[in-house]
Design a protein that fits this description.
The complex is a heterodimer of chains A (about 220) and B (about 600). Chain A has about 220 residues and is mainly alpha-helical. Chain A has one domain: Ferritin (Up-down Bundle). Chain A is built from 6 helices and no strands. In chain A, helix 1 packs across helix 4 and helix 4 packs antiparallel against helix 5. The N and C termini of chain A lie far apart (about 50 Å). Among the domains of chain B are: about 160 residues, Nucleotidyltransferase, domain 5, CATH 3.30.420.40; about 220 residues, Carbamoyltransferase, C-terminal domain (DHBP synthase, Alpha-Beta Complex). In chain B, the strands form 5 sheets. Chain B has an 8-stranded mixed β-sheet with strand order 13-22-21-14-15-20-16-19, with helices on both faces. In chain B, helix 12 links the parallel strand 11 and strand 12. Classes of the chains: A mainly alpha (about 220), B alpha/beta (about 600). At the A-B interface, helix 2, helix 3 and helix 6 of A face helix 3, helix 4, strand 8, helix 13 and helix 14 of B. The complex binds fe (ii) ion (FE2) (3 copies). One fe (ii) ion (FE2) binds next to helix 5 of chain A.
């Protein structure tokens, strides 16, 4: 998506969707917090696969930063919410499981951090709430550092420019494809919500009476 | 020789976990949260499965059975029935429930078989409370026992009484009585937990802690809401509750009217302090919440005693095993042990759903190959162990100055603070250093070997201080744990000295070793463990023997040589809202953010200078 279009999309989200519905805003904060926590986990996992002590120390610093970001979003959430943030829980999937592929992980970080920085910049530019702006400013400063940090890491690993360009290109496509799948899932989800709601209004009145009496027998052993 | 390898799995609700039993012996068990770093992670425990198999050197294709903790089809009928029964207010629950169940949860057998690349026939299912019964009984030293399991809900069962015996060399779990959804004592307790401003299915321990500050003035009201039932064990007056729509709107008008107050906002501070002497001077509205907590806790204890009595009578056994989330209530557990008709009590290291995978694996193993009564128990140290060598090498590159801005609220490192580290050649020196620091009023992070399974840190992933230092305990609460002052700390004490401090009506039982029971502190010993004691004069002890945990026991003794009492205040090595740490790097991350003075990870000692 071109940058101006993405900026416009984010602006609509921030001004309209968040403005109209606080719960949408809170959902977004919860998601941001979970994404930051997931970054922290990915880095922890990566640190386990890296041997160079200096690099591992750097990764520890980054884990702390991403954890801190997750908490900043959590703080914003809790300020505006009636109930405390219960973190979203992702099924953790390491981006790369193999030690031999860790160089790809850092390129992924580079691409991912870059994308996050762009996205947060759009949100920051569209935001009106000074607390959100302040938080995003501080996070953005870190994310820009992460982009540079990831690039340095890649250089230290001796990855050639050509390799870097090719892999980051692939990762960008992979991310686009994942975003497309997500959109697809959201559409299906919306459709199934509609369908199941209809089922509810038609069938539930019949089922309710039976359901209120329904009991099931227990069995012994395993099945 | 035939080798049996059985994997137990529990996931889909909360506290997902995996456990591996080889020939009757539990070789690995861990909750997914310890690997995924998401507290109460409910997802498929991919990381813990991977770890269990790696630890035992077993390939998934070599598994003889994979046992899942519940019968998904039965749970689905409950979810479906309960969302239908709530018509017309349950459209959201119906839609959400059907989406996850039809989309995923119902097909557990296929899901597991696909993920592990094993034949679907290897995947077996148990009933959830059967799993709980196995979890409680098969680790116990008993050859027969009455088992009581109480939780929020399994398939339909919310509580069950089982008579556990052995027949022909195999365990026989005979169901005697059960309560069914929506008659759920666990959900009643969780509703109160939500009312008190805590997160249900997580903050129940806060409800229990708060109870000590209140008077049970609403007990009669609570007794109207839930009572023992001769037929179904527990009867809940559904007028008061909204279990069918629990997460969206747990309180009914009748419930609110009975208590005559509104739910506490999580933002309202509870002005109660375990470390303060004398009554807390709290405003009336906050005393109200303490009174509500005291009331539900009292009624919960009464009902647990009533259920245990039923279990005892119907099974005709003086041995009692407990499981389910309800068995995490250490105050209620202690009230059970006071009953003269219970001679021996057993509560597994992780009685909740996190330990259900252990029950599933042990039972599955025993159904295939039999089991000798009481022969192979299992302790709490079944989790992952990590090597600290690489992290020792990392330390010279660490930049404590850079971590300043991540420091927890309430603490700032001294300017110019650096970390120094050493690896003493013999472990005795590590113990002496840690003991000296503890005696000196320092906050010591202590990680050794395999992590504990279950929610309690028992000296392998713990933070320790002197139990008589209130100032240190306050620093621990505000600069390390970010812990609310109404939540008490626990005590670890060497077995040889337990009698000096604790006043136990019966001999030390296994649950005392794993913090499953609260216990009164002798009046004359209270000052010596005041920081680890609740305002009601009780503590949650870990009575530690050399056989339980040799290194930790040695540490306790070394502390004793310096302070006169072989005991420490012991709290779990995690920040509030996070799971207990696993790897050295995770421990270092917490060390960096908090006022912890000394970090010991296996043989590595790190200090701030
Ligand atoms: Fe971040
Ligand atoms: Fe980042
Ligand atoms: Fe359970």
């Amino acid at each position: 998506m071109p940058t101006w279009l993405e900026a416009l999309r984010v602006k609509l989200l921030v001004r309209l969707a968040w403005g109209l519905s606080k719960s949408r805003y809170l959902d977004s904060l919860r998601l941001f917090s979970a994404t930051e926590a997931d970054s922290a986990w990915q880095l922890l996992y990566a640190a386990d696969k890296v041997d160079d002590p200096a690099q591992r120390a750097d990764l520890l610093g980054q884990v702390l930063e991403e954890t801190h970001h997750a908490e900043l979003f959590k703080g914003l959430y809790n300020e505006d919410s009636a109930s405390p943030l219960v973190p979203a829980k992702y099924e953790r999937e390491a981006l790369y499981w193999d030690k031999a592929e860790m160089w790809k992980f850092f390129i992924y970080c580079y691409v991912g951090e870059d994308a996050a920085a762009t996205r947060f910049t759009h949100i920051r530019d569209a935001a009106t709430d000074p607390r959100l702006i302040k938080t995003l400013d501080s996070i953005l400063a870190d994310e820009v550092g992460h982009v540079h940090g990831a690039r340095e890491f890649i250089n230290e690993l001796g990855i050639s420019e050509e390799q870097f360009q090719r892999e980051s290109g692939l990762i960008r496509w992979r991310r686009r494809w994942e975003a497309w799948l997500r959109t697809g899932r959201n559409v299906t989800d919306l459709a199934s919500t509609g369908f199941l709601s209809a089922v509810y209004w038609v069938l539930a009145p019949l089922g309710a009476g039976i359901a209120r009496r329904r009991r099931t027998a227990s069995s012994a052993g395993w099945s | 020789m035939v080798v049996r390898r059985t994997l137990g799995l529990s996931y889909g609700f909360h506290d997902a976990s995996a456990a591996l039993v080889v020939d009757g012996v539990l070789v690995a068990a861990a909750a997914e949260e310890r690997f995924s770093r998401q507290k109460h992670d409910p997802n498929f425990p991919a990381l813990s499965v991977r770890w269990c198999l790696e630890k035992a050197g077993v390939a998934a294709s070599e598994l003889d059975a994979i046992v899942y903790h519940e019968d998904p089809a039965a749970t689905f009928t409950r979810v479906l029935a309960s969302s239908l029964a709530g018509f017309p207010d349950t459209r959201r629950e119906f839609v959400a429930g059907l989406k996850v169940w039809l989309g995923k949860k119902l097909w557990v057998r296929n899901d597991i078989s696909k993920r592990l690349d094993v034949h679907p026939d290897l995947v077996r299912t148990l009933r959830h409370h059967q799993t709980h019964a196995a979890q409680a009984f098969l680790g116990s030293p008993f050859s027969e026992a009455a088992v009581l399991s109480v939780d929020s809900v399994g398939e339909w069962e919310t509580a069950a009484i089982t008579h556990a015996t052995y027949e022909g060399g195999r365990p026989a779990l005979k169901p005697l009585a059960r309560a069914e959804f929506p008659d759920s004592l666990g959900l009643v307790y969780s509703t109160f937990t939500a009312f008190l401003g805590f997160v249900p299915m997580d903050g129940e321990c806060s409800t229990m802690a708060l109870a000590a500050f209140g008077r049970p003035v609403f007990a009669d009201e609570v007794r109207k809401m839930v009572r023992l039932d001769p037929e179904g064990l527990i009867r809940v007056d559904q007028d008061y509750f909204n279990f069918r729509n629990f997460y969206a709107d747990p309180f009914t008008p009748r419930f609110l009217a009975a208590l005559g107050g509104k739910p506490r906002s999580f933002k309202d501070r509870l002005p109660f302090d375990c470390l303060a002497d004398g009554p807390s001077e709290a405003p009336a509205d906050m005393n109200f919440y303490a009174d509500v907590a005291a009331s539900i806790q009292l009624v919960f204890e009464e009902l647990m005693v009533g259920l245990a009595k039923r279990a005892h009578e119907s099974a005709g056994s003086a041995n009692l095993c407990l499981a389910g989330g309800g068995a995490l209530n250490c105050v209620a557990n202690a009230s059970l042990l006071k009953q003269p008709w219970i001679e021996r009590l057993y509560v597994p290291p992780d009685p909740g759903d996190g330990g259900a995978s252990v029950g599933a694996a042990l039972y599955g193993d025993a159904l295939q190959g039999g089991r000798t009564p009481g022969k192979v128990g299992y302790g709490p140290y079944t989790g992952a162990a990590f090597d600290e060598t690489r992290d020792a090498a990392l330390l010279p590159h660490a930049k404590p100055g850079r971590y300043r801005r991540f420091a927890v609220r309430g603490w700032q490192p001294r300017p110019g603070e650096t970390w120094t580290s050493e690896r003493p050649a013999d472990f005795g020196a590590v113990i002496e250093e840690a003991a000296a620091a503890i005696a000196d009023g320092k906050i010591v992070g202590w990680c050794q070997g395999a992590a504990e399974s279950g929610p309690r840190a028992l000296g392998n992933r713990s933070i320790l201080i002197r139990p008589d230092r209130l100032e240190t305990a306050r620093r621990l609460s505000t600069q390390v744990k970010l812990r609310e002052p109404y939540r008490p700390y626990a005590l670890s004490i060497a077995e040889e000295e337990a009698g000096k401090v604790l006043s136990l009506t019966k001999a030390v039982q296994t649950p005392h070793r794993w913090m499953q029971l609260s216990a009164p502190v002798r009046p004359e010993a209270q000052a010596s463990v005041r920081a680890a004691m609740h305002v009601d004069g009780t503590t949650r002890p870990q009575v530690c023997s050399r056989e339980d945990n040799e290194r930790y026991h040695s540490l306790l003794k070394a502390v004793g040589r310096r302070t006169g009492l072989s005991a420490v205040l012991n709290t779990s090595f995690n920040e509030s809202g996070y799971p207990i740490v696993g790897t050295p790097l995770e421990a270092l991350a917490m060390y960096a953010r908090t006022a912890m003075d000394l970090l010991v990870y296996n043989g590595l000692v790190v200090r701030k200078t």
